Amino acid sequence: MASDARRVGVVGCGLMGSGIVEVVARAGVAVTVVEADGDAARRGRERLERSLRRAVAAGKLAEQELAPVLGRVEVASSLAALSTCELVVEAVAEDEGLKCSVFAELDRVLASSEAVLASNTSSIPIARLAAATARPERVVGMHFFNPVPVMGLVELVPCLSTSEGTIERADAFARDVLSKRVVRSVDRAGFVVNALLVPYLLAAVRMVESGLASVEDVDAAMRAGCAHPMGPLELADFIGLDTVKSIADVLYAELRDSACVAPALLSRMVESGRLGRKSGRGFYEHGG
Ligand code: 3HC
C-alpha cells in the first residue's frame, strides 16, 4: 500500500521536487530523489536544508528533528535506484517528451507491478504519461503547490485508465501520510486550480498592459481588498512567468477561451528572459 510505503521515490530535485522530498521525509517516510544533473542535485539539497531551517526557526519543526529528516533523504543519479519503491512521484521539468521518457523508464525499472507512478504535472494530460507505460492503470496525477511544505493542497488526477485501487492509494498517501487536503479533478487542462488561477493572473497582466492600474496597485488591491497573501503579479513572478505562459498556452489549446490567451506583454517578458523570481526580474526586481 502506498499509504504505508517504506520508501518513496521522487524524480527531479528542482523547486517542486525538493518540496515534495521535504514533506515526505517530514512525514517520517524514507525518500530517494533521483536527479541526474549534479549541480541541480546540490542546489536541491541546499534548498531542502534552507527550507528545513526555516521550518525550525518558525517553530514548525523541532530542532532535534532536523538530522533525522535529512537522514531519511537519499539522492541518486539514476532511476534504477527506485526499483523497490511502491510509489514514485515524478517532478521533472514541464516537458512532455521528457516526462514520457521518465515514465517509460520507470515502467521498466519498478520491480513491483503494483507500484504507483504519479506525476506532479500541472498541464500535461495524465493519459499521455500513462500511455508511455505498460501499466496505465497505475498512473495518476498528484499535483502539489509551491511552496510544497506550506501549501495544504494536492490535486489528485486520475485519467481514463487509472484503476480505483491506484486512486485510493495515492489519495491515502497524500491525505493520511502527508496530511494534505486532496481534491479530485478529471484529466482536463489546468485541473481545478490552474483553470481558475491562470485566467486571473492573465487578466492582471492585461490590466497593467492597458494602463488601467500599476503593477503595485493591482497587487495591493488584491492583498488589501481580498486578503490574498500575494497580489497576482507578485504571484506570477513567484510561479515563474514562463510557467504561467506555458499553462496559459495549454489551457487555450484545449478550451479555446480568449481569457486564456497569453497577453503580448507576458510573451515579451518571457522572450526577454524576465521570468520572475527565478531569473531575478519579472514584474518586480528580486534581489539575492
Ligand atoms: N515548513 C513549514 N512551514 C513553513 C516553511 C517550511 N519550510 N516555510 C514557511 N513556513 C510557514 C511559516 O511558518 C508561516 O506560517 P504561519 O502563517 O503559521 O506563521 C507561513 O509558512 C508563511 O511563511 P513566511 O511568513 O515565512 O512567509 P510569507 O508570510 O512571506 O508567505 C508564502 C510566503 C507562503 C509564499 C505566501 O506569500 C503565500 O501563500 N503566497 C501564495 C502562494 C501560492 O499561491 N502558491 C500556489 C502557486 S500555484 C502552484 O504552485 C501551481 C503550479 O502548477 C503553478
Overview in brief:
The chain is of the alpha/beta class.
Overview of the molecule:
The chain has 288 residues and is an alpha/beta fold. It has two domains: 7-184, NAD(P)-binding Rossmann-like Domain (Rossmann fold); 194-271, Orthogonal Bundle (N-(1-d-carboxylethyl)-l-norvaline Dehydrogenase, domain 2). It has eleven helices and eight strands. It has helices at 15-26, 38-57, 66-71, 96-109, 126-131, 164-177, 193-209, 215-226, 232-239, 241-255, 264-271; strands at 7-11, 30-34, 73-76, 87-90, 116-119, 139-144, 153-158, 181-184. Strands 3-2-1-4-5-6-7-8 form an eight-stranded mixed sheet, with helices on both faces. The model has no long low-confidence stretch (mean pLDDT 96). The site of 3-hydroxybutanoyl-coenzyme A has 18 residues, from helix 2 and helix 9.
Provide tags for this entry.
46% helix, 8 strands, 2 domains, Rossmann fold, 288 residues, binds 3-hydroxybutanoyl-coenzyme A, alpha/beta, N-(1-d-carboxylethyl)-l-norvaline Dehydrogenase, domain 2
Strand % is 5-15%
Poorly predicted sequence stretches spanning 5 or more consecutive residues: none
Number of strands: 8
Tally of discrete structural domains? 2
Please list the strands of the largest sheet in the order they lie side by side.
3-2-1-4-5-6-7-8
CATH superfamily of the largest domain: NAD(P)-binding Rossmann-like Domain
The secondary-structure class comes to: alpha/beta
Going by CATH, the architecture of the largest domain would be: 3-Layer(aba) Sandwich
Work out the helix count. Answer: 11
Largest sheet: 8 strands, mixed
